[in-house]
Design brief:
The protein is α/β, with parallel strands linked by helices. 41% of the residues lie in helices and 15% in strands.
């Protein structure tokens, strides 16, 4: 049925154009139009009010996922510490993916699988709903760790978030590099456009901290090196085995092609390879790696210490092209394994000539093989170097040192929450 005012106008216009007289046969040709109302964003917001507002979180983490990886283990350390300190914590998982480590987060922590819940939302609604929830949350601290969506919000709405009383922190560990060897990644893309809003940038090594300060001009007082803790078991170096352990993601960063070159050139040394393959990595190279008679591909792993002890290894081989200070090196040192690694990122802050076998960043297969043969030929010398790295882990990478470091970051400890439910999106 048409509104009365339209029918009245038809009646008046009929004096000029008789064909517009509102006879029933004319009116049935027209229908009142109602604009389509998209309520998806509103429903999404209502679903999440409890997680962001009603439980009154003090700190919110923005993460992409919880996979098997070093950065994800770092998330776990941060969240477990918040739980230990009694801080009300919400963890927002921003990608629409399955996270195999999600169950490892403390049960008292509120976990929001935002990426999965918002999968039907438009890109704009996905950003704006999360922004509104963050603005209205009483959480005083927002900690961003490797979330693309989180970086987008900090870039576009950092000023609004800071104005609403939030302290914004971001963790960055190293640069990435594309297939052309050009620097890329979150630090490259977002630090220049967000650093003015950040209360602090947290990294796990001194080298990357220095890189950010030098190239981006971030004030030293806003940069914090926070070494991750090792909280597992310790095994005294014994080196009774003769095999070599390689463990990590089979992806370009970790250079499986270098592992292949090493294993192919040292057929008398057996290599056990643990880790999942990145979907985009060279399938042909992985096939050739599997076909080497001295290589055993063992697949994904959750507990490094267990595989290190079960294998009776002589050494841990690391081949990454770039990195921060990877957790797997802490685990290898704790397991009592001599480490052979290139000098990339913050690796030299753990491994040195006295605490392992540190090779030049551009070292090729022969240098790695030389170091492995030195270990196999001098077990006592290798044991002493492994012990040196283990002592460093025990002294610098304890839970207490990590806890003290977090509490020492200016402004990070959540203050008394201020109600901001009246906040409006810009």
């Amino acid at each position: 049925m048409l509104p009365t005012w339209i029918v009245d106008e038809f009646r008046e216009l009929a004096a000029i154009e008789p064909a517009l007289y509102p006879a029933p046969e004319l009116l049935t040709r027209y229908h009142a139009w109602q604009p389509v109302e998209d309520t998806y964003a509103a429903h999404l917001y209502r679903q999440l009010v409890s997680d962001f507002i009603e439980i009154r979180p003090q700190i919110i983490f923005l993460i992409p996922h919880m996979m098997r990886g070093g950065a994800d283990l770092g998330v776990l350390h941060h969240v477990q510490l918040c739980d230990e300190l009694g801080w009300r914590t919400t963890v927002v998982v921003t990608r629409d993916v399955t996270s195999p480590w999600l169950h490892r987060l403390p049960s008292s922590v509120r976990v929001v699988e935002y990426g999965r819940m918002a999968r039907e939302a438009s890109e704009e609604d996905r950003r704006l709903v999360l922004l509104r929830l963050l603005l209205q949350s009483p959480a005083a601290t927002l900690h961003l760790i490797n979330s693309q969506l989180g970086w987008q919000l900090f870039e576009s709405f950092g000023k609004a978030l800071v104005s609403s009383g939030k302290a914004l922190y971001a963790s960055l560990y190293c640069d990435d590099f594309d297939r052309n060897g050009i620097r890329c990644g979150y630090a490259t893309d977002y630090v220049p456009t967000t650093s003015m809003h950040l209360a602090g940038i947290i990294t796990d090594n001194q080298q990357f901290k220095a890189d950010i300060q030098r190239r981006d001009g971030v004030p030293a007082e806003n940069l914090h090196t926070l070494y991750f803790p090792y909280v597992g078991r310790i095994s005294e170096p014994s080196l009774t085995g003769a095999r070599v352990l390689w463990a990590g993601r089979l992806a370009s960063q970790k250079r499986p092609e270098l592992l292949y070159a090493i294993a192919a050139s040292a057929p008398d040394i057996v290599f056990d390879v643990f880790g999942e393959a990145a979907p985009e990595y060279d399938v042909e190279l992985l096939r050739r790696l599997r076909e080497l008679p001295n290589v055993r591909m063992a697949g994904a792993f959750d507990d490094f210490w267990s595989i290190a002890q079960a294998g009776h290894y002589a050494a841990f081989l690391y081949t990454s092209a770039y990195d921060g200070l990877p957790n797997v090196l802490l685990e290898a040192a704790a397991a009592g394994l001599p480490i052979v690694t290139p000098d990339v990122g913050g690796v030299a802050e753990l491994v040195s000539d006295a605490r392992g076998y540190l090779l030049p960043a551009d070292a090729e297969a022969p240098r790695f093989i030389q170091a492995l043969r030195e270990i196999l030929g001098d077990a006592e010398g290798a044991r002493l170097r492994a012990l040196g790295a283990q002592v460093m882990v025990l002294q610098r990478h304890s839970w207490q040192v990590f806890k003290s470091g977090v509490l020492a970051i200016p402004g990070y400890v959540p203050q008394v929450a201020v109600t901001t439910t009246e906040a409006r999106c810009p």
